[in-house]
Design a protein that fits this description.
Strand 5 and strand 6 form a beta hairpin. The termini are far apart. By secondary structure, this protein is an alpha+beta fold. It is elongated. The strands form three sheets. It has a four-stranded antiparallel beta sheet with strand order 1-2-3-4, covered by helices on one side. A four-stranded antiparallel beta sheet has the order 5-6-7-8, with no helix packed on it. It is built from twelve helices and twelve strands.
Length: 472
């Protein structure tokens, strides 16, 4: 057994010696050891993303439709949500497309346009700068880059002339009839707890004039805010719109604000116009349940419609709605000369349903009287007014009911009766202020009293509603 093992070892040594001799005789045949190729550790559930051009094109088309649905204007009936929300959705859509499919000229330009719409001028310049690198879209992207760079430059130059702590929200060119180029700047102090949300009562509109490097502030407004005890003072979003409400050469300026509330999104619009060598207030509108622009009838007068809830005895969800129309007349925003019959009939239908469930509700009866007045049924209107006034003394808030009655008379074209109702509302407000110690309730009542005084200061004017006078 030991001899067999020795023979096997001798054979192995002979094979090794022969191999060593062959390697010495033929050195180019030496075997070169191969380095091991490192493999990255496989991620659990890793997926390989395959870019499909058809899928990318469909996603870009969807994002571009979102951006097209968010122009710089007031809302319209076909808009299913606030335009600023749609613009934010478009920005987020383009950002996700770039993250998933990689940068492309179409996606970068869309991202830049959506940032420009939202007043994010620095982000817009960055997006257009990336789009310019693509040769296929260099011309169009360069044009948008110049526009965004100009907006960014204006915002940086006027920043030191704004109130301390303010941030530029929007910059718009304004064709003011004065030498030099004019810019409107909407600014506000950002809420530290919000996502680019202005803090309450800090939004200011300013007019700057001059040329690059030498702008001067021509005019600045007081803080713009909604004054309504039924809504929060917090601002969700603000927009600056320059559009013509009539056929004049100089357009009007609209500051649009969106506020949060429990079950609605209150809207506020301040209208400004060029007058006597400067910008003057031309009216304000508040709406609880919707604001949009349109026409009284096909091809008719252009108007802004606002819808508010009638303060009836029903729950919030079942309160009837009333829609008013305001148009530009005599240098300011005023109620339209004639109502829209279809809207009046719809309001009348809701009012009748409310009276069926809550017979004798005073304010609902008064609004039903105004509907009859607007449609020409004056005898029915007087009967509704009389029935409604009988129930006012039973209400716990006669001041609010009397102010609503004045509004009703204004709507119906009875300014003399409206003045009487507003005077009675003023007396009730003053009496209640003397008895009320709660600061929050006092602030709400002071706002109501300010509205009543504004309306009384206008006298027996055919202008109705909560339209603020231009000399506020």
């Amino acid at each position: 057994m030991r001899g067999d093992t020795d023979i096997a070892n001798i054979r192995i040594l002979a094979v090794v010696a022969a191999a060593a001799a062959a390697a010495a005789m033929f050195p180019h045949h030496r075997a070169v050891p191969r380095r091991p190729v490192p493999h990255p550790p496989a991620k659990p559930n890793a997926r390989v993303c395959i870019v499909d051009p058809a899928v990318e094109a469909a996603a870009l088309g969807w994002a571009e439709r979102l951006l097209a649905d968010a122009p710089e204007r007031l809302p319209r009936p076909e808009d299913d949500k606030p335009l600023l929300w749609t613009a934010r959705d478009a920005r987020d859509a383009f950002s996700h497309i770039i993250a998933k499919f990689g940068p492309s000229p179409r996606a970068e330009q869309g991202l830049g346009k959506s940032c420009l719409r939202l007043g994010l001028y620095r982000d817009a310049v960055a997006a257009f700068s990336r789009a310019v690198r693509f040769r296929s879209a260099a011309g169009e992207a360069a044009s948008w880059l110049r526009k965004a760079s100009l907006m960014l430059q204006v915002s940086r130059e006027v920043q030191p002339m704004l109130p301390r702590g303010s941030t530029v929200l929007r910059v718009r060119a304004f064709p003011a009839p004065i030498p030099g180029r004019s810019w409107l700047v909407l600014s506000g102090i950002m809420d530290p707890n919000g996502d680019r949300q202005p803090a309450p009562h800090t939004i200011i509109l300013s007019l700057f004039n001059g040329k690059v490097g030498s702008y001067r502030r021509v005019w600045q407004s007081e803080p713009i805010a909604r004054v309504d005890g039924n809504a929060s003072d917090d601002v969700w979003a603000a927009d600056l719109i320059v559009e013509s409400l009539h056929s004049g050469a100089v357009p009007q300026v609209l500051v649009y604000e969106l506020y949060p509330a429990g079950d609605c999104e209150p809207e506020h619009v301040s209208v400004w116009a060029w007058a006597h060598g400067g910008i003057a207030a031309a009216g304000t509108l508040d709406s609880i349940d919707g604001m949009w622009e349109g026409r009284i009838e096909r091809g008719g007068q252009r108007a802004i419609f606002i819808t508010n809830r009638i303060d009836s005895a029903t729950c919030e969800a079942q309160k009837p709605r009333w829609t008013d129309a305001y148009a530009w007349r005599d240098g300011r925003l005023q109620p339209c000369d004639r109502p829209c019959p279809q809207m009046v009939r719809e309001a009348m239908r809701q009012l009748r349903v409310t009276l069926r469930n809550h017979p004798g509700d005073p304010i609902t009866l008064c609004y039903l009287g105004a509907s009859n007045d607007l449609l020409g049924y004056h005898h029915r209107a007087v009967a509704c007014y009389r029935a409604g006034r009988k129930g006012f003394h039973l209400d716990a808030d006669p001041a609010g009911d009397l102010a609503d009655l004045g509004h009703v008379y204004d709507i119906a074209g009875r300014p003399a009766l409206a003045i009487q109702a507003y005077r009675a509302a003023k007396r009730e407000c003053l009496n209640k202020l003397e008895r009320t110690k709660n600061p929050e309730e006092r602030s709400y009542m002071e706002g109501d009293l300010a509205r009543v005084r504004r309306r009384l200061a206008a006298g027996a004017s055919p202008a109705y509603g909560w339209v603020a006078m231009a000399n506020d």
